[in-house]
Write a structure and sequence with these properties.
Helices cover about 20% and strands about 30% of the residues. By secondary structure, it is α/β, with parallel strands linked by helices.
Length: about 375
Amino acid sequence: MASLPLWGRVNGFNNQEGECVYGSKNLARKLLLHPPNFRSSSTHDNLLQGENLDHQNHTNSETDNVKEQSMIVNGTSHAFRGWYADGPWQGEAHLYKMEKVIFEGKSEFQELLVFESAGHGKVAILNGYLQLTEKDEFAYQEMLTHLALCSIPNPKKVLLVGGGDGGILREISRHSSVEHIDICEMDTMIIDVYKQFFPDIAIGYKDPRVHVHIAEGIGFIKSVPEGTYDVIILDAFNSMGPSAKVLSKKSFLESVAKGLRAGGVMSAPADSLWRKGFVVADTIALCKKIFKGSVNYAWTTIPAYPSGAIGFMLCSTEGPEVNFKIPVNPLNPKKNGVAKGPTKFYNNEIHAAAFCLPSFAIKATDDDPNMF
């Protein structure tokens, strides 16, 4: 799963004993760790072997001279010792109780933090933004993949841009009709770290059909010959919606459409229906102008994400008609590729239900009854 900057910024933490700083070029993000003597690594080759956090000894008391602190980062929030804050997002933040820091590293392109949490298993933070948690990663990976691949018959060639964790590759491997899988990932650190610390996710790389291209995604897409792929899955950019940069550019989406064969399909994450300022109809209208075929918005629940939900944009190019709401290419539960067992979230019923929208979202498109 790629970095999704949509999720917001990380709350600031500090204390009297020390701090470990992570951040982008524009904002230093401070993560409170205790004890403070975690070793820092400048490259992904130097792994940070985290120590257990003794929460029983980390109470706010006069004896250890620690008090609850607050910092202002896009608003005021409270910081608690031994917790990681993901946010704020529309005035909210999600707190994760930290058990142990597993990895901390910085490549030429990105910074990555992996820690063991009390309730979500291992959590990955990329450039200060939550990337995935072990508890619910499969919901995102399965839906982004199978809503597309199960909507067309016999997909043979697939491109994944981003998705360096390997989870989407794991899901693509379930489709026996697929003959060739290209993944474009710009950072080898991401691949290496997931293979070491998230083997059940990175297992996707064990599929012999996978071909890895270490390259920047936008340039790679633009170099794809016309009509190359049956399916293109985008997992490297801001979700489609008000915060989108790359996925709102007409020229980039035109490059994606060009790379698809007639009736080919693109799948990309989109903003949650609960995101302020996100109008589903606007995003659908943009995609219809470019892809010329079927365009639908779907959504699902993912506890770790802000609002507990995320959307997906499914778009097909001109050619054989695609009805995304009907899985014409259903999964075979006896054929799971390199995955260790059947899907945990996706099924035919969930596929169809994902396109059912709440009344407030439908109302926003009353002027176009054929929008959904």
